[in-house]
Amino acid sequence: MIVLLSVEPGTLESTMTEDLSPAERYAAARRRAAEQATALASFREMYDFGLDPFQIEACQALEAGKGVLVAAPTGSGKTIVGEFAVHLALRQGKKCFYTTPIKALSNQKYADLCRRYGAAKVGLLTGDNSVNPDAPVVVMTTEVLRNMLYAGSQTLLGLGYVVMDEVHYLSDRFRGAVWEEVIIHLPESVTLVSLSATVSNAEEFGDWLDTVRGDTEVIVSEHRPVPLFQHVLAGRRTYDLFEEGEGHKKAVNPDLVRLARMEASRPSYQDRRRGRAMREADRERERRQRSRVWTPSRPEVIERLDSEGLLPAITFIFSRAGCEAAVQQCLYAGLRLNDDEAREQVRALVEERTAAIPPEDLHVLGYYEWLEGLERGIAAHHAGMLPTFKEVVEELFVRGLVKAVFATETLALGINMPARSVVLEKLVKWNGEQHADITPGEYTQLTGRAGRRGIDVEGHAVVLWQRGMSPEHLAGLAGTRTYPLRSSFKPSYNMAVNLVEQFGRHRSRELLETSFAQFQADKSVVGISRQVQRNEEGLDGYKASMTCHLGDFEEYARLRRELKDRETELARQGAHQRRAEAAVALEKLKPGDVIHVPTGKYAGLALVLDPGLAAGRSDGHRGYDHHDGPRPLVLTAERQVKRLASMDFPVPVEALDRMRIPKSFNPRSPQSRRDLASALRTKAGHIPPERARKKRSQAADDREIARLRTAIRAHPCHGCDDREDHARWAERYHRLLRDTSQLERRIEGRTNTIARTFDRIVALLTELDYLRGDQVTEHGRRLARLYGELDLLASECLREGVWEDLAPAELAACVSALVYEARVGDDAMAPKLPSGRAKAALGEMVRIWGRLDAVEEEFRISQTEGVGQREPDLGFAWAAYMWASGKGLDEVLREAEMPAGDFVRWCKQVIDVLGQISAAAPPQGSTVAKAARKAVDQLLRGVVAYSSVG
What is the pTM of this model? Predict the structure, then answer.
């Protein structure tokens, strides 16, 4: 038990000092004087609260000249260590760069440091903002620092400290490589301060930092300054997830376990529909239970939290539409969390922050509905919102004027918006490919927002009860600290030319071998090698067990395996032939053909709206696409418009009938779909589908199969009484031998992986005349200025003059294809494109991409490894063209069918790449640089210009 004593200042110290001898008192005085002379002592005086032990330890290591890695929970105050690096830099007359992963964090940190040190000493550098860049302290995004390092910027002179906030971002598969590039390439004289969320392999990451940056102290704190309590909200009750067990161990609340068991035993709606009888007693028990257990509605949850004093709260909903719907549900329910005084404060702040937005745009942006929610203390927060709106929500939440925020998981990424409570509606989210359970790391990150330091005594994480929920699984999420840092580092074309220009090929290769990715790969090889040794011992045992006294059973087993492989190969060839026949049949389809889809999710009657494409490259949902065969767009009898794949047609398909498609038919209109589907059912609903006729198997006439069967029957081991027993051991032997070979290939593959990828990239760049040995050509220097996923494609477009003589709006449309990636699936209609020169240039870009794709395949550079050039996406070209041509926001958003926040974000990214292109384009004899600068000016207006966060 800890007892806190209230003692007058200086009393305890003087009492202790009286008990010391004169020599001890003198030594204590010397120690106090030495402490007072440190930079940490003057730094501590700047704060009106005491520092935590982990903060003091990290600051002392920094003052001793060491680099530090601080891994601590969200809200624990690890940024104090970063601010101490700023303090040290100013005290020593050096520069400090404070890097963050996103512009919103950079803006927030810039404002914090300006308040502390004054605007004259602090600068800001993001993709679209440059404020006082020569200041001794500059806040920037990590990409800006990476670009500075490659360009050898003069701004780096005098740099003493670099703070990398949210350094665990290096796990991000799209942007993580930038963090490693910075860490590897920073001058040795720079002290690195790495701030990370709690990760389970901090020591491993620290070991790597020690290797590449020198003496690095690893400080890990698992202590939350505000304790977090976990709850489950079910029906009218709020259950604690844990209860104290024996020896102060936490155990899952038995009430929750009982609740889950009762729910599991209750027949589902589907069970009852199948006719399963329920006894009267069962029905009565179910009625009683249903009156106690349900998933509360969103307004109910907020009202409950308000009544229990648990607001402000952030409710995480893994859907933008869900966040907006939640706000509307609370408004319809008449929820009001603000009094009249708070409403007036909200309106005043909102009007001040949105004064720059033209009145005609307010209605388009949903301003008035948004304002009504804010005045009641309720708001949404997601990437589809206008950045200005998001900033206002964040500011009002921090001020306590918004008390309930419905947010997507992007809010968990560093924005300073702590709450008293965090609510999770579900423990499943869409990860881009499928609905998957959230990981313990994601759960920790989301619930880390709960509990405001210096305000709340405790934080609360509330999970809503859902049918089928497992309390044990939830307890595992809440109690697990596994959030490993995994490198996503991969060399890129731009990285390769920049490295070769600065260091030459040999030294560049050595530098890449020091990456965290290679460090982790090398460590994993040790465990695999041990497994290979164990497998080899097992192989010896299996070989002994399959020995046959009649002959060589290994040879007999090989013949049996060859027979099986040949039969499998013939079956595969047959399937391939059937697919080819099906593809030929699909190519004959025409709009208006009525077909029967033989299999798949949309099996049944369908009307062909668009026959799709022949195998190869042509128009598709992104403007242009690669295809294995035709992909018809159909209307099903169930009113769904879908683009089908070749796998939906394992057998040839023929038109059963024909129908006229009305010119007025709009696939996006539910009424149009309903009317045409009804006509389809009337026209062809009675026609039965043709049954595919079975053909004679190829195996029946195959000479190789006949030869192998004869050899097997003639082999001595074929007559062994224990033949099948020996065969089982032989099969195990073969399976283990195959697994061992795979492990050996993995060992070979993980050794020097990064360097081998770099070698392939360098070989390709040499082939395309970007590099000549250690020399970077003129084309290579152009590529060195182009950063982004499609850096090589952009460089080739400049090289081949694809964008010459384009108007600024046309160039903006073309450049949008380099940055945009659609969120929709393959069943979307082909995008609208600008006509004339812009359309021709976009087509030429796709042609060049196809050529690069073939070259990458030749040099074994794969997109699956995160290295190759993805296909350009033309889905934003029309919106970029319209906006750069001066069209109004209402018209552009309506045509683009895109939320304002997404539109602004993509415009900012197009502007960023246009800036790179204007710098990389030839200054003489080219119109591109001038057009790019004009395109930036034409895009940077209205909502795009007044949104400070991209």
Answer: 0.69
